Amino acid sequence: MTHSQPPLDLSPKVSDEVRKTTCYMCACRCGINVHMKKGKVAYIEGNRDHPVNRGVLCAKGSAGIMQHNSPARLRNPMKRVGPRGSGEFEAISWKEALQIATDWLAPLRREAPEKLAFFTGRDQSQSFTGYWAQQFGTPNYAAHGGFCSVNMATAGIYTMGGAFWEFGQPDWDHTKLFMLFGVAEDHDSNPIKMGLAKLKKRGARVIGVNPIRTGYNAIADDWVGITPGTDGLFILSLIHCLMKAGKIDLDYLARYTDAPVLLNSDPRSPDYGLQMQDEDGKALVIDRTTGKLTPFDQPGVRPDLAATYRSAGVTHRPVFHQMAEQYLGEDYTPEAVADRCGIPAPRIRAIASELARVAFDEAFELDHAWTDFRGEHHKTMTGRPVSFHAMRGISAHANGFQTARALHVLQIILGTVEVPGGFRFKPPYPKPATAHPKPHCKVTPGAPLDGPHLGFVQGPEDLALEPDGSPTRIDKAFTWENPMSAHGLMHMVISNAHAGDPYKIDTLFMYMANMSWNSSMNPGGVMEMLTDTDESGDYVIPRIIYSDAYSSEMVAYADLILPDTTYLERHDCISLLDRPISEADAAADAIRWPVVQPNRDVRGFQSALCDLGAKLGLPGFVNDDGSQKYKDYADYITHHERRPGVGPLAGFRGKDGTKAGRGEANPEQIDCYIENGGFFVNHIPDGARYYKPWNAAYQDWAVGMSLYDSPQPYLFSLYAEPLRRFQLAAEGHGDRQPPDHLRERIKQTMTPLPSWYESDPHGTQGYDIHALTQRPMAMYHSWGGQNAWLRQLHGHNPLYLPTALMREKGLHDGDWARVSSPHGEITVPVKEMAALNPKTVWTWNAIGKRKGAWALEKDAPEVTKGFLLNHLIHELLPAKGDGLRWANSDPITGQAAWFDLKVKIEKTDAPAESKPQIPPQRSPVPPPPKDIAWKVGK
Fold it and tell me: What residue spans carry the region label Disordered (predicted)?
């Protein structure tokens, strides 16, 4: 009997049409092909032409179909009819919703704009939302960066003009040694996976530094299971070893950094520790050739790393002298730090040796001629094939800012930033801190704020303080408590507003910020604050407006709901003014557009803001005759100009769509993006792709692209002078002085050269286990919790314990444990994990959900077994007995110190469900269907 192959259709028709847009399932912003059949989404795949992912797509991206069809989607605007928190709402029209919002907000704008606190979550449109808040006139605006990764971003900008991920990337094609610190699996996941694949294929070495060995660390050649909060100490020990061995790039330090810049070294001087500058404010160095004092950027100058200069009885010494004194001391020897870091001294020395060997012994040259900012012509580019990457793991500690700065200094002394094989900036970076705006806070009733809310302070004179010294902002950003809080302190908004510290607000307006659950420290306390009433029975926070696409835990606490669309039903702008999709070799931005129309009464939040801005008569949102200026967000994207010729999108500008970077508004611009796959790319010329801060060709290209208005070459700041200015104030110099109770903290933490200090907060005695969360690759924050496909990967989360701790506590897989902190306790299932720092436990982030939220079944595993560590964390540090409210934040930037949590663990009997169990909330959306399936056509 002969075998016959049954007929198979090996190329079935997947779709009738393919629509190309940008993914929204995490912050990668990958390009996707959305296959349509019969007008519905049938299939999502990666766009092979897209600069971010080049066709690669993760489980989250493919599962966007289920996000789009989620039963948790909100259906219509709603106003609260029951008690706040009850989830009892009445459906209303958009006309009524916008009128309610206008009636609440118009009096505030006329009389006290600061009484509006407008804070947004992970919306990726902060350029627009910030502009709206500025036109309203409130100083109280920020986004989620203050509780996410402001330490990383701010430390990078103050040190070298950019940082990791959205600011830059490793040179994947030339790196031979890649070292990553504290990188979660969901951030930038597709580009990192693609890059790691390149490294593995070429035989490059990967070192992962993380208390937890999962994801990227699991495939690292060398895993360093560091004790949480000690990364900075470990990095400074590496710097010690490299400097002591002389394995640093002296030529690079002299040419491109402030290492040769002269500092006042007289402790009696009010300028002690400040740069010596000329009349134009340019830093001064000694020229090795002439021995004379000269500005750093003069043609032909060869800055001297060793020479000193004496003037008016004061000796001025180069920054490099300060570095040698600070980092060659005994405090940073491997033997001195090993026990605290959990890394043996020989291993620290071996890693330092390997960094040096690859950086210098495997250095190479690229045959690319270039001219630097001093006019010197170079025939080649020196490559140092060592690169680094880091994210929230080192950032979310009270010492995270200085730790991130230390990592940047480590890169710089090896000469591996903006060179072949090293770390490379993505346009619009590099930009030094001085090229960014300073924060603005002048409130004028009935008028816009005097400038952008967020920025980079250069000294005490830039703080957001009232004449009496009290904070101008509700979150206390840019105050002596956290002077350099470039992203604000979103985690402190509700707590401060409830306490009336520094003042009461009238309306809390939030977008996509799940502050009653996983986005908040102390969710139980926050829920009480949101529902608390005063002696007259009125809510302490009088009004709450909230916008979200889904029935999240926060929805129940709003008085007015403005329902957002899903990402496949909206316009979005991934802009060079905000968080673009650039690569190191090109400037790039992108759009989202409605590949399908909503089947519910919802609007994209940005479009709703255009409508609300017009009803409020906000300048910038109305024409001279008072009519609405932008009919929706797409109209804003197309026609808004931040300055002449510069708008949200850089591509296809000009009336004929042929200009890039600068040009008149093009009415067909969005259509041009759609035809091009949803993105625009402009490549950097070959000779301009490295040495960007100092490369004249890059600077000229950047001006043409409107990244700068004129060339902006600068030196990397190993020594961050703004920090020294705050120290000087704490020492009693200057007109603007800190409160006495903060003087010592400022002097200790705000060191101009990176330092390390213990981040273990007061009041944790007896709690000796570090507790962390980590985001899984298949989930992004809490967004996937209602996604039928992704829930199959992470339906609930155990607490992972190291082997020795499991044995000590008599625990086995599936047992339950009571986990407590100074703030609270939870009861959760546990599992053993060997590849874990012995002093650390961890769990997946944001898997646990509250009953009634997200249209989940009442016995869903997310609500019966899932849990949050958030219940153990508080936005305030334990009381010190001084009557003050001390934020659980980095004292420099105000970043939430999520990862400073310490706990104790006890075995307990298994409860029916994980604890605490918050009573169910009523959902404004129908119960979920019994089965969720999605199939389009045959």
Answer: 909-938
User: Domains in the chain, please, with CATH?
Assistant: 719-752 (no CATH), 769-908 (2.40.40.20)
Q: Which of the 8 DSSP states describes residue 244?
A: H
Which one, of 223, 229, 181, 219, lies nearest residue 199 by Cα? Answer: 219
Helix, strand or coil, per DSSP, at residue 928: coil
Please write the tens of the pLDDT for every residue from 452-485.
999 999 999 999 999 999 999 999 999 999 999 9
How far is residue 21's CA from residue 674's CA, in Å, rounded to a whole number?
7
CB proximity list for 916: less than 8 A, separation 6 or greater: 524, 824, 826, 871
pLDDT at 1 over 60: no
Number of C-beta neighbours around residue 930 at 10 A: 6
Six token digits for residue 911: 């409860």
Confidence of residue 938 (pLDDT cuts 50, 70, 90): low
Are 168 and 162 in contact by the 8 Å Cβ rule? The answer is yes
121 and 129 Cβ atoms separated by less than 8 Å: no
Distances (CA, A) of 121 to 38, 139, 235, 277: 34, 17, 32, 41
Cis peptide before 430 (omega within 30 of 0): yes
d(CA 426, CA 423): 10
State whether residue 532 is helix, strand or coil. Answer: coil
Token pair for 116: 């509006």
Give the pair of three-digit tokens for residue 837: 């720092």
8 Å CB contact between 79 and 100: yes
Number of helices and strands (H, E) in the chain?
Answer: 24, 34
Candidates 796, 770, 885, 867; CA nearest to 523 is: 867
Give dist(CA 736, CA 654) in Å, integer: 48
Cis peptide before 916 (omega within 30 of 0): yes
Identity of the residue numbered 731: E
DSSP assignment, residue 687? Answer: G
Structure-token match 């508004």, residue found: 665
Structure confidence at residue 778 as a pLDDT band (50, 70, 90): confident
- pLDDT at position 764, please? 84
Structure tokens that stand for 564 in this block: 């957002």
pLDDT at 212: 97
Cα separation, 704 vs 687, in Å, equals 16
- Describe the crossing of helices 94-111 and 605-615 by its angle, rounded to 10 degrees: 60
Sheet holding 116-120, edge to edge: 89-91, 78-80, 560-563, 543-548, 507-511, 116-120, 141-142
DSSP percent split of the chain into helix, strand, coil, nearest 5: 30, 20, 50
Burial (0-12, 13-18, 19+ Cβ within 10 Å), 897: buried
The per-residue b/e assignment along 725-757, b for 16 or more CB within 10 angstroms, e otherwise, is bbbbbbeeebeeebeeebbebbbebbbbbbbbe
632 vs 603: CA distance, rounded Å: 10
Cα separation, 127 vs 576, whole angstroms = 9
Q: What is the pLDDT of residue 185?
A: 79
pLDDT, tens digit (0-9, with 9 covering 90-100), for 429-446? 999 999 999 999 999 999
Residue 849 pLDDT exceeds 70? yes
Strand partners, 168: 425
Q: Which positions ≥6 away from 763 have C-beta within 8 Å?
A: 822, 877, 878, 879, 880
As a whole number of Å, the end-to-end CA separation of the chain is 34
Q: What is the edge-to-edge ordering of all strands in the sheet holding 314-318?
A: 262-264, 314-318, 309-311
Q: Using omega within 30 degrees of 0 as the cis cutoff, is the peptide bond preceding 428 cis?
A: yes
| Residues 832-844 pLDDT 10s | 999 999 999 999 9
What whole-number distance in Å separates Cα of residue 22 and Cα of residue 20? 7
